Amino acid sequence: MFSRLSARALKSSSSLFSASRASAAARGSSVRFASTSSSSYSAFQSALNSNFTLAGASLVSVGSIVWYTHLYGSLPVIGEVHASHLSDEGLHPAEYPWSHKGWMNSFDHASIRRGYQVYREVCAACHSLDRIAWRNLVGVSHTADESRAMAEEIEYQDGPDDNGEMFMRPGKLSDYMPAPYPNEEAARAGNAGALPPDLSLIVKARHGAADYIFSLLTGYIDPPAGVEIREGMNYNPFFPGGAIGMARVLFDGLVEYDDGTPATTSQMAKDVVTFLNWAAEPEHDERKKVGIKAIILFSSLFALSLYTKRFKWTPIKNRKIFYDPPAGKH
Ligand code: HEC
């Protein structure tokens, strides 16, 4: 009787179910039609009981909890006790429509150029930009000649020469942006104990990113009634704690832009933040361009593979297997 079972039916059903199926078929007295999906119920049941499903489900639950906690803090069922008021963590910055925000948008390079000017003329007095070399500006905000000329204005220590002496030489494209202070102690001493952080990655290093830095630079106000600020500190509601060592640095008309853009406080803040955003993500434009290409390429490949899979499996998925008992035996 087994031998009369279609060989294809035995081959196609997984070995796990073939035995039970075959015996079920053997017990049945009438003609039994079976398709490859006839085992789907038991397959579903065993999938439900498998260790793999158990591990998967645990992983999904743990993952959702971790993701929720990452986004919103602790779970709502767990009470939180704050020693401080929520406002101590700083005012939440507004969301600004940055021109480079969005899947398809690149940096505004004219803004990066203006932003570099603001950094150089204002922020560079206190903040270093360690990870940016002069050559990085080439083709982004300045030409090679402009960058070289700017580098040459600065003296760098080099050496040792043939006599073992260190010497000073004009900067080259491969030199990194000079730091305003030789070390952290000097930086703190120059800023009443507060350390001006390196700005290379600051946009990535703060919650709220560009929105936060923009809000910080434009958000200086007098301390509200009842708030005491220590001598030498400044009030900024966006800075966690409210009291920041850096005073307001941007004022209307502080710099004069080459391209004639009016240098208002918010314009300079927007430009310098765009510049710092570029400094933190120099690969940004390229990344989005490659991303779009990858999405187009991989989605067409996916569609193609879907089509090929269905094409190849059609005869197998659409066949109908039935058992035809030998006539006259019963
Ligand atoms: C006179 C020196 C000085 C100048 C000029 C200056 N800063 Fe600062 N900046 C500081 C100091 C000091 C701190 C550290 C403040 C603190 O920790 O309380 C700081 C902190 C910062 C921070 C970090 C805030 C945070 O969340 O920790 C950012 C961002 C920043 N400055 C951006 C700028 C930008 C952009 C410019 C130019 C437009 C600029 N600064 C100009 C001294 C300066």
TrEMBL record:
Enzyme class at the top of the EC tree: translocase
The coenzyme or cofactor needed here is:
heme c
Q: Where are the transmembrane segments?
A: none
| Catalytic activity line of the entry | a quinol + 2 Fe(III)-[cytochrome c](out) = a quinone + 2 Fe(II)-[cytochrome c](out) + 2 H(+)(out)
Cytochrome c domain boundaries: 110-262
Q: What is its EC number?
A: 7.1.1.8
Cellular component terms (Gene Ontology): mitochondrial inner membrane
Q: Which Pfam families match?
A: Cytochrom_C1
InterPro entries (UniProt xref): Cyt_c-like_dom, Cyt_c-like_dom_sf, Cyt_c1, Cyt_c1_TM_anchor_C
Q: Where in the cell is it found?
A: Mitochondrion inner membrane
Q: Name one GO molecular function term.
A: metal ion binding
Assigned keywords, A-Z: Electron transport, Heme, Iron, Membrane, Metal-binding, Mitochondrion, Mitochondrion inner membrane, Respiratory chain, Translocase, Transmembrane, Transmembrane helix, Transport
Q: Name one GO biological process term.
A: mitochondrial electron transport, ubiquinol to cytochrome c
Similarity remark: Belongs to the cytochrome c family.
According to UniProt, the name of this protein is quinol--cytochrome-c reductase
